[in-house]
């Protein structure tokens, strides 16, 4: 998505007005491009693979799928989502700061922008049928992050460890609730198998667990049914996915807010500190890489090995929660992903500063500038390749084969995005979003010189 990232020339009368872009912060566009392309690495299995797709090879170190998965988990899982949120937070400052210097309020303009983004997200999830949409959440949570934009960076950055700890506690309480219901079910089920009469409480325990299984732990027959739906018509796919999208956007919204909000606040802090705008020295960026890899890599590798050993399948996961009331290893997640994400950003900045990979950087800049259009393009391509109303390739590919398609999409967007920007000021969706925000048609084509 094209997050607000540009420095604009404004002609101000009664309220902030848009103008043709005359300047952008290239490194922000480049980082956004990295996040946009990187997020597809984690999204594509959820377009294309059935539940439990990792189970056949998750412990098979001789399988190429295992090592593809390992690289994704260690270097990308959680990091790209965090990077997206980080840049979105920085974009809040970029969108509002110059307008606010005029003394005019930008609040309604920004909120109108976020309201349209939220509506785009609903359409993305329920019409294009991408259950992993983030536009809806960014629109809503962006309105919250806006309220913190003037806070001191040190306080903004504290949001990440605070939310990480709160998230760990909340997740632990949730899992302990699941664990308690599972133990009650096991006890009641054991009595039932022995032929004992069950009390109303024990009967309810069995029914409660069956409901949890239906919602969170589908059995092989249900997995087969879900796969058949995904290989069906548009209406069949929609019937399967829309309730999941609805639950994520409304039923579980309260659980999704805090992580994204904390990361947006961190993005605002890092922008104010100059980290995202290359105001740090090269020595500081190199130090960030050494610290990030020195601490983050051992943590994420340990976590990956631990989870591979203890959670290879549903049965092992249930056995673990039966025997453990708390999984302390979960504390690692938020800290290792922030560290590795900071490494990614520092590496990109150093490469850019040294003038390396200029053609790639130009492509990433353009991809980032057209990120809204490119993000939706991911969904259009993947749904038409994998869903039943398209090429019907759902559950047909090996896991590692998905990344040939990812590479193809990357190359296409890296090539076509700079070409598009030679003729047009914005991507088509960026232009539409901008026009809706300002309430009038915006310039689209570049003027011939």
Automatic annotation (TrEMBL):
The keyword Membrane applies. The keyword Nucleotide-binding does not apply. Keywords: Membrane, Transmembrane, Transmembrane helix. Residues 270-439 form the DUF418 domain. It comes from the Bacteria. Pfam families: DUF418. The chain crosses the membrane at residues 34-53, 73-94, 106-123, 129-148, 155-174, 252-276, 288-309, 335-352, 372-390, 402-421. PANTHER family: INNER MEMBRANE PROTEIN. This is DUF418 domain-containing protein. It comes from Algoriphagus hitonicola.
């Amino acid at each position: 998505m094209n997050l607000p990232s540009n420095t604009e020339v404004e002609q101000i009368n009664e309220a902030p007005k848009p103008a043709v872009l005359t300047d952008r912060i290239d490194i922000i566009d480049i980082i956004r491009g990295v996040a946009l392309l990187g997020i597809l690495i984690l999204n594509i299995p959820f377009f294309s693979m059935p539940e439990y797709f990792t189970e056949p090879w998750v412990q098979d170190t001789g399988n190429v799928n295992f090592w593809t998965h390992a690289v994704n988990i260690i270097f990308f899982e959680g990091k790209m989502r965090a990077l997206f949120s980080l840049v979105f937070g920085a974009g809040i400052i970029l969108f509002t700061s110059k307008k606010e210097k005029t003394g005019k309020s930008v609040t309604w303009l920004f909120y109108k922008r976020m309201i349209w983004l939220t509506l785009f997200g609903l359409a993305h999830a329920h019409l294009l049928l991408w259950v992993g949409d983030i536009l809806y959440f960014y629109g809503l949570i962006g309105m919250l992050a806006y309220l913190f934009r003037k806070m001191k960076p040190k306080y903004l950055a504290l949001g990440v460890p605070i939310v990480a700890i709160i998230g760990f506690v909340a997740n632990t309480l949730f899992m302990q609730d699941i664990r308690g219901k599972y133990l009650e079910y096991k006890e009641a089920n054991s009595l039932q198998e022995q032929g004992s009469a069950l009390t109303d409480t024990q009967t309810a325990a069995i029914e409660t667990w069956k409901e949890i299984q239906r919602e969170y732990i589908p059995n092989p027959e249900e997995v087969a049914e879900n796969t058949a739906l995904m290989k069906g018509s548009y209406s069949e796919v929609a019937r399967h996915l829309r309730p999941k999208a609805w639950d994520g956007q409304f039923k579980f919204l309260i659980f999704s807010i805090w992580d994204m909000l904390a990361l947006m606040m961190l993005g605002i802090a890092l922008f104010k500190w100059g980290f995202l705008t290359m105001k740090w020295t090269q020595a500081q960026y190199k130090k960030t890489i050494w610290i990030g890899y020195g601490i983050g890599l051992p943590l994420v590798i340990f976590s990956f090995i631990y989870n591979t050993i203890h959670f290879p399948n549903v049965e092992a996961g249930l056995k673990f929660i039966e025997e453990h009331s708390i999984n302390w290893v979960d504390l690692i997640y938020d800290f290792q992903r922030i560290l590795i994400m900071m490494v990614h950003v520092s590496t990109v900045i150093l490469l850019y500063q040294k003038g390396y990979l200029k053609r790639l950087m130009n492509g990433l800049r353009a991809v980032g500038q057209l990120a809204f259009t490119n993000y939706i393009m991911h969904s259009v391509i993947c749904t038409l390749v994998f869903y039943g109303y398209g090429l019907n390739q759902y559950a047909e590919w090996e896991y590692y084969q998905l990344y040939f398609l990812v590479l193809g999409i990357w190359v296409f967007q890296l090539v076509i995005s700079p070409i598009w920007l030679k003729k047009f000021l914005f991507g088509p969706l960026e232009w539409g979003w901008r026009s809706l925000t300002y309430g009038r048609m915006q310039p689209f084509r570049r003027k011939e010189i």
